[in-house]
Design brief:
The protein is an alpha+beta fold. It has 13 helices and 11 strands. Strands 1, 2, 3, 4, 5, 6, 7, 8, 9, 10 and 11 form an 11-stranded antiparallel β-sheet that branches. Helix 5 packs antiparallel against helix 6.
Length: 323
């Protein structure tokens, strides 16, 4: 079979299944748009190859992707085309990837394990030829084992950690391992394996004194703030209106966590600024970073940053350059 013919051939395992080798960004874009969790791939140039597989298992999906440098976006239209909301578990085996979701930037390399929410708008940039294995879990299955996506302490388990090594080995073997068992046992083994993988994730402790309904409202408020992080004025009135609650009740929710609403907003702005400046590829000046995270007054950003960390943003950038 010629490379040209091979590149254009694909088989649909089921409505949710896909297997294709791509010889161009256009073919990869076509395959990515047909996935259950689809992406819009941005046009590129130069030599390109990719391979895409996606296979259903009960209500979940297994997948493997190989692709050359490219970028893409998962927007509201792509999200609406998915039959249900998934949480994606991704093990990067080769390459270098940057993902931005809910105002947070995740830089992943070979060996890192990343968890991301397919129901939230996202962008990615592949910086080097990348190979990864993926498991898409329905959110209800994920929430059976984890308090919720917002409860995660971090969306990435770094490759240097023991947890990443253990989880990585399990994710690599899970799909082929299931085929070795009788069909009647596969669902139970899969569920137990997912419980083990998710138990390796670090979760934030639940705030005392909050009911489940209050926890859910607080989670929605934090997601909203993450989406608005680059806006100069995130006001209590705007957040409360979006949530359909009073400003007084909103302040009460954050007070129960031991942190005021605006203290939380500023902490998230500073966290995002650190993530931007800690990337060794970043060429942004301090004033540009301040603007990106909603500090339109650079001097205010400098004062707030130094008060929290004990040194200026420019010093932090210098530390990262030496690391």
């Amino acid at each position: 079979m010629s490379a040209e013919h091979k590149g254009r051939e694909y088989r649909s395992v089921s409505k949710r299944g896909l297997s294709q080798i791509c010889e161009s960004v256009g073919e990869f874009a076509s395959a990515a748009s047909r996935m259950e969790v689809g992406w819009t791939i941005r046009p590129g140039s130069g030599q390109f190859r990719a391979a895409v597989t996606q296979e259903p298992f009960a209500d979940s999906l297994f997948g493997e992707l190989h692709y050359y440098p490219c970028s893409g976006v998962r927007d509201a239209d792509e999200i609406a085309r998915s039959k249900q909301d998934y949480v994606c578990l991704t093990l990067y085996e080769e390459g270098e990837m940057r993902m931005i979701q809910r105002g947070r930037t995740i830089d992943a390399r070979a060996g890192d394990f990343v968890v991301w929410d397919t129901s939230a708008p996202s962008t990615f940039e592949c910086l080097a030829p990348t190979r990864c294995k993926l498991i898409w879990l329905p959110q209800r299955l994920f929430n059976r084992h984890v308090a919720g996506f917002d409860s995660l302490e971090n969306q990435i388990i770094p490759r240097a950690s023991v947890a990443a090594a253990v989880v990585g080995a399990h994710v690599r073997q899970l799909h082929p391992m299931l085929a070795a068992f009788p069909a009647r046992k596969q669902a139970k083994i899969f569920e137990s394996s997912i419980e083990f993988i998710l138990s390796c994730l670090s979760e934030r402790p639940l705030a005392p004194g909050l009911t489940k309904q209050q926890q859910a409202l607080l989670g929605r408020a934090k997601r909203l703030i993450a989406e608005w992080i680059g806006i100069e004025e995130i006001t209590p009135a705007a957040v409360a209106q979006e949530l359909g609650i009073s400003v007084r009740y909103l302040h009460r929710l954050f007070a129960l966590t031991g942190q005021s609403l605006m203290e939380y907003v500023n902490s998230q702005r500073l966290e995002q600024a650190c993530q931007i400046m800690s990337n060794w590829r970043s060429k942004f000046k301090v004033a540009e970073v301040a603007h990106q995270v909603g500090f339109y007054d650079a001097s205010h950003f400098n004062r707030t940053f130094k008060k929290k960390f004990g040194f200026a943003p420019s010093q932090y950038k210098s530390f990262q350059a030496l690391d």
